[in-house]
């Protein structure tokens, strides 16, 4: 049985259609990555899955008693709240000292045990968040750009930990990531979201596309081939920072950000369908 | 002679009872930035007093009911169009105004409003003591039971939901606890100064605490010190007792922050 299944979920936030008939299932033990431009509804989708937001239409089924480990995109801790790293790990359920120390050591944050949460740097904070999420031995781990702010070794360590968790405990992982080279290596499935599910499939499938091959030589930029799908229902207010960043040789088209640009108007250019 | 026959002993016990509940709850008020939430609930209590007098029910019941209604209304209205501080300002002051007007309609009874605005800790009866300590015990039990869930929700609602908790329910728990504290504290410090007893000990304790639990404990200690010192000082200088207690708490707050300024490394 699937851990979570979403059937045609739609949600508007502040008058904007953030999720548009999104369907998705998560099976035990699989690693699924969601990619998509800024504002494409990635974090919103994760919040629907944990139950923090309720869809306006569509159905969501979670396995009964599903244990979810969640690492939010950012976590603000009010400076009036004194909280040591050790105490944080025991929220909401108390964990033993051995388990806490082991989790921190695994996350490369063993020396931070008695620090105040508010004193940590961005990367240290993220490591502690990960340690806490892994401590609960979740059946589904949900990571919202979890490695944001981690240095390269930290990020590599983290994905190794996720991989080990999946191997040893059969934990499923759903993540949003901008590190597309990691996405390609570690995921079983990739879902490209842009309000709706644009395309999804195995990363190998994506990687075998000629456009992807052609770009893969340029290192991480190659993974941007994932974005080379049909944009003819483009949402005008999206922030196409990836395109902007990597220039026109990656995307051989000119994105108009004109607000009058309606959904019905097709872009007059061709995109490689990759998945 | 029974110890409780001494009005000073009763006053001290009443003050300690209130502090026992108010200090830990006050920590949540500080962490969640709901200082004005406490104010609004407390001001609604005056309306509760007026209604209780006109319908001839116990003051405690009237205050508890109104404080509860206010706490639940505000927590449900939050995030629906108005900014929280605007909403709280409107409800707090209008309920205080309506309360004061309503009290003037109560026929026959000469109501000593000062007693409800500022409390009269020296006039606490044995019955009041029973109410205060029962209320305090209830609040403490509620906080102890929900502590971990409340703390997780305070930290981040999404994190709490992912752990299977309901932030809405925890907000309700806090609202109920707040209403209870207001209802039992009205006799001791009065509606105008209840928020002070919630906030000041907790805020003072922040300088010395490294964990949430420690902060709640230290806040309770500071609150107890304020009660003892306040009653002592009020006796010595012949000043109103409730406000004197708050003055002592404020002095401790100033000293605590001075100590932190002098040693900026300790957090």
UniProtKB/TrEMBL annotation, chain A:
Keywords attached to this entry: ATP-binding, Cell membrane, Ion transport, Membrane, Nucleotide-binding, Translocase, Transport, Zinc, Zinc transport
Record region (Disordered): 238-275
A biological process term (GO) from this entry: response to zinc ion
Protein origin, superkingdom: Bacteria
Molecular function GO labels: ATP binding; ATP hydrolysis activity
Domain ABC transporter: 4-219
InterPro entries: AAA+_ATPase, ABC_transporter-like_ATP-bd, ABC_transporter-like_CS, Metal_Ion_Import_ABC, P-loop_NTPase
Key word Zinc present: yes
Listed Pfam families: ABC_tran
Protein name in UniProt: Zinc transport system ATP-binding protein
Species of provenance: Celeribacter neptunius
UniProtKB/TrEMBL annotation, chain B:
Pfam families noted in UniProt: ABC-3
Membrane-spanning intervals of the chain: 12-31, 43-72, 92-117, 129-147, 173-203, 215-237, 243-262
SUPFAM superfamilies assigned: ABC transporter involved in vitamin B12 uptake, BtuC
Record GO biological process: response to zinc ion; transmembrane transport; zinc ion transport
Chain segments annotated as coiled-coil in the UniProt record: none
Recorded topology in the membrane: Multi-pass membrane protein
Location in or out of the cell: Cell membrane
PANTHER family from the UniProt entry: ABC-TRANSPORTER METAL-BINDING PROTEIN, HIGH-AFFINITY ZINC UPTAKE SYSTEM MEMBRANE PROTEIN ZNUB
Name used for this protein in its record: High-affinity zinc uptake system membrane protein ZnuB
Organism: Celeribacter neptunius
Lineage: Bacteria, Pseudomonadati, Pseudomonadota, Alphaproteobacteria, Rhodobacterales
